[in-house]
Amino acid sequence: MKITVGIPAYNEEKNIASIIENLSKIADTIIVCNDGSSDNTGRIAEKMGAVVINHERNIGYGGAIRSLFLKARELESDVLVTMDSDGQHRISDVLPVAEPIIKNQADLVIGSRFLEGNQENIPKYRKIGIKMITKLANASLEDAVSDSQSGFRAYSKTVLSAITPSEQGMGVSNEILMKASKNGFKIAEVPIVVSYEGKTSTQHPVSHGVSVTLSTLKFISIEHPLKFYGIPGLIFFGIGLIFTIMTIQGFTETRQILLSAAVIGVGTIIFGTVLLMTSIILYSIVNLVRENSSK
């Protein structure tokens, strides 16, 4: 079975050589996506024997993952393991992460930081953010996961053929999970240990969290428009009816219109109606697109 390791890299000339050297002992092929680095990351990777994809400019983590998927598909890899280039992932975890796919037990495997008590090394702010984003992602997954934001993953040949990531930012991790779940792929998790010593992230945690949350909400709204727009629409419509009834009752008793209740009633009914119509229209469009794409 051909195991390929894919590494998205941006200005990682200090780490990339040692990572490739250690990976060459266990991987059949190593792909490095040099995502617009201004240092020698790409040149070093080429000298070390890796297959290098060079982006002319930095387009983001999601864009790098997309390029790795496409190249692994082109190379007919049986398993693609993705890991970070900043040294926080252990080389020794590569084969355990790939093992469920090798044994035909899973199609996608997440190296989770939250299994078997391995979360002690995770900074508290990251732990809180990861868990919140994971809960949001789990709302659209058939089976809940513990670490939706882990970049240490393994993908089967079937997943590589069926999924082409489109998100260019950090939201690509949740995008792939939601698409995999929609396609009925088996998702598994294995424990990993991550090192957070030194500088291991180039993006501010707040902007990272906001970006991933917005991206996840976007995909949830596309995949489940009736839930995403329809349920809030019903709630607002119901609230509007309550305030409208209160206004009518107040008028029949006092012959005076309570302006605030009337405005709230009419406003929420209109807003709820818009959300309900949006959910129905998007649901129809999404299903029409799916039917056409399956022909």
Automatic annotation (TrEMBL):
GO molecular function, one term: transferase activity
Tagged with keyword Repeat: no
Keyword terms: Membrane, Transferase, Transmembrane, Transmembrane helix
The keyword Nucleus is assigned to this record: no
Domain of life: Archaea
Residue span(s) of domain Glycosyltransferase 2-like: 4-162
Annotated transmembrane regions: 228-251, 257-286
SUPFAM superfamilies: Nucleotide-diphospho-sugar transferases
Protein name, per record: Glycosyltransferase
Natural source organism: Nitrosarchaeum koreense MY1
